[in-house]
Amino acid sequence: GIVVLGLNRSHAKNALNKSLLKMMSKAVDALKSDKKVRTVIFRSEVPGIFCAGADLKERAKMHSSEVGSFVSKARATINEMANLPVPTIAAIDGTALGGGLELALACDIRVAASSAKMGLVETKLAIIPGAGGTQRLPRTIGVSLAKELIFSARIVDGEEAKSIGLISHVVEQNEAGDAAYRRALALATEFLPQGPVAMRVAKLAINQGMEVDLVTGLAIEEACYAQTIPTKDRIEGLLAFKEKRPPRYKGE
């Protein structure tokens, strides 16, 4: 079904420290092989905040020799999220800065409240985005605009984020402060009836195909399609269509 991973470091605005990264990595690792998982939603349990980025108080105490390995761990953890075989949705109901936005960029789909604030602000600190931001942002909104946002460390709201293609859906925030999460749940519910094997290989085909030329991409699509042909779900889909009933997919 739908799995929700909620960030909850309220005293630190969900800032990413060593401990939180370790917990995130462990949670993502458990989801990789769980065939019952169909969609994962990343959200915050802290009102007004998605994730404020790296924990700068912890960073200030690090020796310069430790910083590189911490950033590598953050990058690896976010890559693990990006490589989850099922659809992932970031529900951004509050501020997502630096590593927080990089976390959201690693998700397949982003939904945000109009009041949410997003930006890769690392250049203000004389560093650069180090957990995928310099690579995923231009792939999402285009090279020139990504450079502009990173060079200026600009923060955009949900409406502007939607207009530049940073997010897929923008919603007005509600009194509970979870409008983006509710929209993400509605999206995830739309995904549930589809064939689980098909969803996994569709994601694989798109992700791999986007990194290569069209001819190679079409070959990847062919190989991925071939994985669906021998499945029981494919036969069930045809049978359900013939019998005019909803299919009962088992991911086999």
Your description of this structure?
One of its GO terms (biological process) is fatty acid beta-oxidation. This is AUHM protein. The structure is a single chain. The chain has a five-stranded parallel beta sheet with strand order 1-2-4-6-9, sandwiched between helices. Strands 3-5-7-8 form a four-stranded mixed beta sheet. α4 crosses α5, α5 crosses α6 and α9 packs antiparallel against α10. The chain has two domains: 190 residues, 2-enoyl-CoA Hydratase, Chain A, domain 1 (Alpha-Beta Complex), CATH 3.90.226.10; 48 residues, Lyase 2-enoyl-coa Hydratase, Chain  A, domain 2. The protein is built from eleven helices and nine strands. The protein is globular and about 60 Å long. The model has no long low-confidence stretch (mean pLDDT 95). The protein is of the alpha/beta class and 252 residues long.
Give the tally of β-strands.
Answer: 9
Helix content bin: 40-55%
In the residues, how many domains can be counted? 2
- Globally, the shape reads globular
Structural class by sheet pairing and helices: alpha/beta
Q: Extract low-pLDDT stretches.
A: none
The rounded Rg comes to 19 Å
- The protein's oligomeric status is single chain
Total DSSP helices: 11
> Main sheet: which strands, in order across?
1-2-4-6-9
Report the CATH C-level class of the largest domain. Answer: Alpha Beta
Determine the strand fraction and express it as a percent band. Answer: 5-15%
On the 0 to 100 scale, the average pLDDT is 95
CATH topology of the largest domain: 2-enoyl-CoA Hydratase, Chain A, domain 1
